Amino acid sequence: MRGLLLAGAQPEARSRWTDVTPLHLATMFNCQEAVEVLLEAGADPLARCTEFEDATPLHLAAAHLSEGSARLLVSSAGQAALAATDELLRRPVDCLPQLTSGLFNIGRACYRAFPKPFLIQ
């Protein structure tokens, strides 16, 4: 990732097909090192993606239970990332899946990435 950025790749590039940025993709797949490098390179943690109902990277991190990426995004963008709403008026915390069966332990870990006030509303 660093090599691509050093060679001139843009951290804010968008896919022609899905409108996602590299930061959206990195958070969806919980590639924490890529998230960190992209944020250091100036990627916008509040970038919107029309393909996913105007979701920010934190919305996608929550939906995909990407705890490490969620922590990095919250650390980078703070309250703005936590309070951002998508076109369906969901905050990132609202995109966390229901905790059922085998997903319980993974989901519980991702919930810890969000400050308690955002979970008790």
TrEMBL record:
Origin superkingdom: Eukaryota
Coiled coil: none
Record has Transit peptide as a keyword: no
Keyword terms, alphabetized: ANK repeat
Name listed for the protein in its UniProt record: ANK_REP_REGION domain-containing protein
Listed PROSITE patterns: ANK_REP_REGION, ANK_REPEAT
Pfam family, one: Ank_2
InterPro entries noted in UniProt: Ankyrin_rpt, Ankyrin_rpt-contain_sf
Residue stretches of each ANK repeat: 18-50
Signal peptide: none
